[in-house]
Amino acid sequence: MVLRWLLALLVVVTLLGLFANEHWMTRRLVLDGRGPDQRLEVVDDSGSGGASHAQLSTAPDGTHTLRCEIKPGFEWPFCDLQIESVGGDLNLTRFSSLRLWVSVAGPQKDGVPAQLRIFLRSFHPDYPGSGGGEDLKPHEVIFAPAGLAMPVELRLSQFMVSSWWAQTHPLPVPLMGPQLDRVRAISFSTGGQVLPGAHVIRLQRAELIGNWVAPETFRLGLVGLWMFSLLGYLVWESWAVRARLRRSMRRSKALEKMALRDPLTQVANREGLSRALELLTRAQGELGFPMSVVFVDADHFKRINDQHGHDVGDQVLALLAQTLRANLPRDDLVARWGGEEFVLVMPQTPAEEAVAVAERLRAVLARTPWPAGLAVTASWGVAEARDEAGLEAAMRDADQAMYRAKHAGRDRVISASA
Ligand SMILES: Nc1nc2c(ncn2[C@@H]2O[C@H](COP(=O)(O)OP(=O)(O)OP(=O)(O)O)[C@@H](O)[C@H]2O)c(=O)[nH]1
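Above: inputs. Below: predicted complex with guanosine-5'-triphosphate.
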């Protein structure tokens, strides 16, 4: 049941987490060339020996329009709308994509729609050159926005180092690949093999999108969450099983105790006696012998029941058992054999000593204040076992000795050997 709830919770948390990480736990950076951290610039090939001319206008809604007159005569003519980060280089590794609302128009070659080149220009002190704009490493993507649904989402992993730049800027191997941790400028530029004529780049909105937590890290976290939850469940489950086991053992021990004890007198019943004897002989072995057995039977008990009622009879039996128990050493066993008959087992006690103990107990009974002012006596039969094998015979002998005590007039102790 718990596992089912845990699984349901994990599934909900996982789905919610994935959705939240994708849609809610995102960071975005708007690239609009405004504010103290960004500067908008227009660059054209006139600075590099060309004759193209670019002009920028910005509408009240923030849309930037770059009008570019590409002139022939220069090998790589271009116009460029550049947003420079003047508040410090941008670490784009914290972002995953560039989202664009953009359009381009211009003369088409062989029906190929006008293209837009986007450059992410990175700085690194080890890049060759004087450190000017042309020495920033360009990472580029080129595509034709016409016919695409806006916004267009470009994954930053799609940006590759421009090969023409790499040829003029030989780099050590570790610096050859894309490096987006120190991006200084983003450029929106006319296409590669641009035709002469009037070109227009319209940039409505550009924003960088990233997750607070990288998706891979987030997924790894979710896997960890599953693992720890399952581990936690297993630990809890094994603890719960052990607790259940402990409870049931306690309960069965209590039941066992009840099964081995006479409920009226609170001393052992026959089954309890045989278990206790088993334990005793196992613990003491030969040292427990000689062992004496004493049978005790209340005298004229029927009369007590008949004259004073069954309840008084019960009280007498309970008091008799308690008196026997209270006046015997702890190691000696007391059990109710049945009816008004009890058995005492005395380890390490020869018959003579057991007779003496029985006599002492008989005297105690004579002094005991019994219910309803009764004078309760008992007949006692004593026998001795020299070893474990002789125990059964000793039981029989003690029982017979007790009957002899009855016949001899009751309220006396008789030893089987006498
Ligand atoms: N109140 C009560 N009486 C019991 C219980 N168990 C046995 N008895 C009664 O004990 C009586 C035993 O009677 P008998 O076997 O004739 O023995 P007795 O009257 O003690 O006579 P002797 O043993 O010959 O001295 C019977 O009346 C049983 O009903 C019990 O748990 N409670």
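Helices lie at 2-24, 163-168, 215-260, 270-284, 301-308, 310-326, 351-367, 391-407.
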